[in-house]
Structure to design on (312 residues):
């Protein structure tokens, strides 16, 4: 049956790292699971292990004690995207970018700083912090040019094949991981395939759930589910049912499952005017699974993303 640390920040060794930290401080560099709005606290054992992060060649690797598959890899970032993407060739949607590491806590793996430079001149700074049972993302996107940026959304791609026991070495079925995955619909945690599962699109298979208020013409060109998710969480359980992984962003464009054994909560940018700065935040939760784990996850999510919740 499916059940469902330390203060940041030693800001870095170089001037670029200090400047990057200062840019992100406006939205806060540190959050913890903490109490829920109702004031109840989460048992420390339910949070999960202290995690570690490292980034190399476009892949963010998350490690922690006893994690299935030994680590979780995130393609960070897969793409920055233009609007009008739902029924368009993918190459015409992607905005070219280059992401580099600015600084990192190589000794303990507690944090990484990255900088993405888009082809249109937009600069996106990322501060990624490893905590107990979660990885925190603080993103600042700024447009130093005199032209409006078309950057509408971006894709962190979490690879969960090994985590769910459906990796390339275990099965040739690229879609075998999907029944391990869940979102919240109609007031409850629902495993996939969820109601209204779509099968037709420019590219198949896959499934996209559009965030509230987002134009349905501006998402991934995979089958589009007719229902809006209750909240911005998407996740999965491990092959042995002992672990739970989930992710959310604010603001978010879509929830998505794809064809490379991946989960997406893709963050929204919404275009950037000349001189404008936008701040974005995200989480990846990695915690023990148990009969109370879904409630614990929602409690943490309520605390971290109070603006998302619709019916939970």
């Amino acid at each position: 049956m499916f059940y469902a640390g330390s203060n940041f920040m030693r800001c870095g060794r170089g001037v670029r790292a200090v400047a990057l930290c200062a840019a992100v401080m406006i939205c806060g560099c540190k959050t913890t699971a903490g109490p829920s709005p109702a004031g109840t606290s989460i048992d420390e054992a339910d949070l999960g292990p202290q995690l570690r992060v490292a980034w190399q060649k476009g892949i963010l690797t998350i490690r922690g004690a006893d994690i299935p598959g030994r680590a979780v890899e995130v393609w960070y970032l897969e793409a920055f995207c233009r609007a009008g993407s739902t029924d368009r060739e993918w190459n015409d949607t992607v905005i070219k970018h280059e992401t580099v590491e600015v600084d990192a806590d190589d000794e303990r793996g507690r944090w990484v700083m990255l900088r993405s430079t888009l082809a249109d001149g937009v600069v996106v700074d990322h501060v990624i912090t490893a905590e107990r049972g979660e990885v925190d993302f603080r993103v600042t996107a700024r447009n130093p040019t005199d032209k409006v940026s078309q950057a509408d959304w971006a894709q962190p791609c979490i690879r969960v094949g090994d985590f769910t026991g459906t990796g390339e070495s275990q099965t040739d079925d690229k879609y075998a991981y999907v029944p391990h995955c869940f979102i919240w619909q109609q007031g409850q945690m629902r495993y996939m395939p969820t109601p209204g599962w779509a099968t037709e699109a420019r590219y198949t298979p896959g499934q996209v759930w559009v965030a509230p208020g987002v134009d349905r013409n501006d998402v991934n060109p995979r089958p589009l589910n007719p229902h809006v998710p209750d909240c911005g969480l998407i996740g999965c359980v491990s092959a042995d049912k002992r672990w739970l992984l989930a992710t959310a962003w604010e603001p978010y464009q879509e929830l998505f499952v794809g064809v490379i054994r991946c989960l997406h909560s893709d963050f929204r940018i919404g275009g950037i005017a000349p001189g404008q700065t936008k701040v974005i935040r995200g989480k990846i939760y990695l915690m023990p699974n148990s009969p109370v784990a879904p409630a614990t996850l929602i409690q943490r999510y309520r605390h971290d993303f109070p603006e998302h919740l619709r019916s939970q």
Notes: The two ends are 22 Å apart (CA to CA).
